[in-house]
Amino acid sequence: MAKLNFCLSIFVFCISLFNIQTKCFDERPWLYKHHAALFIFGDSLFDAGNNNYINATIGKANFWPYGETFFHHPTGRFCDGRLVPDFIAEYAKLPFIPPYLQPGNKLFIYGVNFASGGAGALVETGKGSVIDLQTQLGYFKNVSRVLREELGDAKAEALLSRAVYLFSVGTNDYAFPFETNSSVLYTYSVEQYVGQVIGNITQVIKEIYEVGGRKFGFPNLGPIECAPFSRTMVPAGENKCFEPFTPYVELHNIEISKLFQELQSDLKGVKYSILDFRAVGQDLINYPSKYGFKEGKVACCGSGPYRGILSCGGRRGVREFYLCDNVSDYVFFDSGHPTERTNEILAHLAWSGGPNVTGPCNLAALFEF
Ligand SMILES: *[C@@H]1O[C@H](CO)[C@@H](O)[C@H](O)[C@H]1NC(C)=O
Ligand SMILES: *[C@@H]1O[C@H](CO)[C@@H](O)[C@H](O)[C@H]1NC(C)=O
Ligand SMILES: *[C@@H]1O[C@H](CO)[C@@H](O)[C@H](O)[C@H]1NC(C)=O
Ligand SMILES: *[C@@H]1O[C@H](CO)[C@@H](O)[C@H](O)[C@H]1NC(C)=O
Ligand SMILES: *[C@@H]1O[C@H](CO)[C@@H](O)[C@H](O)[C@H]1NC(C)=O
Ligand SMILES: *[C@@H]1O[C@H](CO)[C@@H](O)[C@H](O)[C@H]1NC(C)=O
């Protein structure tokens, strides 16, 4: 592993040298021709460390035991190791895609990660301690400008249209109101509230399209009502998922599929891949042993029933927490986030899964186009 990391850093180092002499781009067209870039948006499932650089009061994971498995140090990822986009980058033969806010990150030809733990599609979600989706879009537009300056319009356009835009967004828009008993649950119907979330996602997709993006990767929403944090909202003693979530998530997922069917017929050149994260996640939670896990309901790290309290690391107000012996046995690392092993399974299915888990194509096909 260390060897691989070393090779990777040498590789990235050489690429940065080429970047200084922009002339080299002309001499090495393979750099952008044969590697579709990867731009990443959304929440903690995909945040590779952006929140390290903002005033994210609780939305940070830059302390032990986060990162212990693969990186052997905390990176800001809400996981013991790698996230889904880290595996996707590997399968697409790209280096790790760095967080946009990481100081000195000026190499954008492989893409960049804008995701921020706690973010949703709505500006109200996590307001004040996340990079909201609108701001992520703003960062992306600035990156597209930098690429145009560095590569020229034609090459920048080729890069942007070949790139894949990967999203994890929506969970927090539904989870936070329940966690805080927010009035939006009472002032809007399920249809109205989901309509706002989908409306804001639609707007962001359309603006990325305007800038030149064509290929979108969207896991739908997972079984968030069965994550450890959700089970703590169920009256004690009932071994159940938190069902009030379900109508929101199910409608959201129906609307996401419809949205992309519409976008594909309305906007020339749009291609997309949806991973049925919901079905796969339910399978993982209900039949963990099918995938080599021992535990699908209780998190590896945290406190309280199901370790559903987000206290992993003891740095978010609650100091006491439990850490499991063998993280490989668990589907969930903390109260709301999968372990690296789970992420690898999800990424593998998103990349090469068949029509029962991805549609209308998988990510491997999307990268090929
Ligand atoms: C960060 O957030 C805390 C808590 O909300 C606040 O007291 C502090 O002023 C914020 N700092 C900055 C630099 O915004
Ligand atoms: C984009 O760049 C412009 C000009 O450099 C800057 O004013 C603006 O704040 C940037 N937007 C974001 C979201 O970073
Ligand atoms: C949540 O808020 C509603 C209305 O604001 C209130 O009727 C209800 O009792 C609250 N529920 C809990 C669990 O606090
Ligand atoms: C986006 O969300 C806001 C609430 O944050 C809502 O008022 C607005 O109508 C939504 N936009 C669309 C296009 O649905
Ligand atoms: C998808 O199909 C494969 C084999 O074709 C099967 O092993 C797998 O369980 C299915 N996945 C789901 C989530 O139904
Ligand atoms: C951890 O769990 C995995 C999967 O159950 C198993 O293959 C491995 O041997 C375990 N490691 C230790 C140190 O017990």
TrEMBL record:
PROSITE patterns: LIPASE_GDSL_SER (PS01098). Keywords: Signal. InterPro entries: GDSL, GLIP1-5/GLL25, Lipase_GDSL_AS, SGNH_hydro_sf, SGNH_plant_lipase-like. The keyword Signal applies. Residues 1-22 form the signal peptide. Belongs to the 'GDSL' lipolytic enzyme family. This is GDSL esterase/lipase 1 isoform X1. It comes from Ziziphus jujuba. The gene is LOC125422341.
